[in-house]
Amino acid sequence: MEAGVRETRRSDDPSTAAARFVDRGRLWQRHMEMAKIGAIPGDGVNRQALTREDIAARKLLIGWAEGLGFSIAMDAIGNLFIRRNGRNPDAPPVLTGSHMDSQPSGGRFDGIYGVLAGLEALEAFDEADAVTERPIEVVVWTNEEGGRFSPGAMGSMVFTESRRLEDCLGIADAQGVLFADALAETLAATPGTEKRPFNFPVAAYIETHIEQGPKLESEGLPIGVVTGIQGSRWFEVEVVGESAHAGTTPLRFRRDALQEALAIISALNDLMNDPSDTVRFTVGRMEVIPNSPNSVAERVRFTIDFRHPEGSVLSDLGNKIEPTCRRAVTCCEVEVREVFHRQPCCFDPRILGVIEAAATKLSLPAIRMPSGAFHDALFMNEVCPAGMIFVPCEKGISHNPAEYASPDDLAAGARVLALALLDLANK
Ligand code: GLV
Ligand code: MN
Ligand code: MN
Questions:
Q1: Are 393 and 405 in contact (CB under 8 A)?
Q2: Smallest-distance ligand from the CA of 97
Q3: Does the Cβ of 306 fall within 6 Å of ligand 1?
Q4: Closest ligand to Cα 207
Q5: CA distances from residue 173 to 146, 176, 312 in whole angstroms, order as listed
Q6: DSSP state for residue 144 in the 8-state scheme
Q7: What is the pLDDT of residues 120-162, one digit of tens each?
C-alpha cells in the first residue's frame, strides 16, 4: 500500500498531489481519540445514537473541524455538515461521510471511519492548496445503527424525504426515552450552528466504510468499489399470552408467550432455510415480560432483521413472515409490525468509475463488490449519484468490540476518497 503512496509522490498530477497530504498517523490518532468516547472492554465502543456519548463525539468532531476553519451546519434531525467551500459557493456540494453512532457493543471503525476519512480529505485539500469548483461537505448522519431507536438510517431517510421527521419523533428506546427528547437534547448541545433544510441539492455522495465482511482481507485487496446494497426488511413481533404461576399451573391451562415465540422462530428458521446461504435472517433482540424464573411469560417482543440481494426474494419471503408467525401460534395472540423495508440498490456507474479511476491513479488494486450491510448511501442514492469505498477489516469482524482496520488500509481508503472528491467537485 505504501508503494501506492510513493507512486503519488512521483506524480505531477495535481489531484494525486492532494492525496499525499492524507496523513495516516493523524487519521489513526483521530480514530483512537474518538474511541475513548463510550469505550467498552475489549477495545469496543458503546456510542449509541443521541446519547451523552454521541453528543461528546459530535463536540469533539466540531472542535476539530472549526479548528481547521471549516463551517458547521445542522438540519432538524441533527445531521451535521462540515463545509469546505468551493470557488462557486452556490453550486450543490459534493457530500461524503457516514455515521458516528455505534452498536451497543460496537467497534471503533464502523461509521466513524467514513466521517474521519472525509475530514482527513478536507484537511489534505487545505494543505495541498487544492481549489475546487464545488464545495465539499462531510456529513454525519444521525442514528444510522438503529440499535437504540429503530429503524436505522433515520437521518439519511429523513434528509432524503423517504420518511417524515414527525414519524420518528414518537419512537421510544428500551428505557422509554422518546427520540424527540433525545434529539432535542442533542440539538441543544450544539447551539449556534447554521440551520440546513432537508434534501438540499447535492451533486454527488461518496461514503467510505470498513467492509464488515472478509472478502477484501482474504483476497489481499485494499479497496472495494461498492456496486450496491442488498435489500432489508425489519419487523417487530409481539406475542401476548398470560402470566401464571410456574409451580402450579398445568401445561394445558397455560398461554406461554415465550414457548410460542420459540415456536414462531423455529417456523421462521424453516421458512428462511437457504442452502445457498444468501438469505440473512436474524433475531437479535428479545424482551420477556415479566422476565421472572417462576412466572409463565405473559408477553414476548422480538425483532426480525431479514436481508436479501434480490428484490423479488426480499418481497416474497418477507411477505411470508407474518402468515408464518400466525400459523405457528396455538394459544397466544401475535402481532407483526414491519418497521423498515428497503429494496436493494445499485450505485451510479459514473461514481463507480470515478472511484476506480482514483484507485488506479494511486496504484491501489480494487474490486467491485456488493454490500451486505446497509448504509446511508442507500438513501442518498435516491437523490444524487452515490457510491461507496470499502476498506478491509480484520477477519470481517464488525458489530463487535474486536472490529479492527489497519492504519495503512484506512489511509489508503481516505486517499482514494480524496481523489474521487476532487474529481467530482470539479465536474
Ligand atoms: C448497519 O449497521 C446494518 O445493520 O447493516
Ligand atoms: Mn456503519
Ligand atoms: Mn453498523
A1: yes
A2: 2
A3: no
A4: 2
A5: 10, 5, 32
A6: -
A7: 999 999 999 999 999 999 999 999 999 999 999 999 999 999 9
| Nearest by Cα to 73 from 85, 82, 86 | 82
Query: What would the grid cell of residue 199 be?
Result: 434534501
- Secondary structure of 280-304 in the HEC alphabet? EEECCCEEEECCCCCEECCEEEEEE
Look up residue 92 and give its DSSP letter.
P
Ligand 3 centroid distance, CA of 213 (Å): 12
Residue 120's CB is within 10 A of a number of other CB atoms, namely 26
Does ligand 1 have an atom closer than 6 angstroms to the CB of 305? Answer: no
Q: What is the DSSP letter of 7?
A: H
pLDDT at 391: 99
- Is the pLDDT at 5 greater than 80? The verdict is no
Residues that place a CB less than 5 A from ion ligand 2: 110-111
Residue with cell 461507496: 388
Q: Which atom of ligand 1 lies closest to the CA of 399? A: 2
Taking the whole predicted model, whether its pTM rises above 0.90 is answered as: yes
Q: What is the pLDDT of residues 175-218, one digit of tens each?
A: 999 999 999 999 999 999 999 999 999 999 999 999 999 999 99
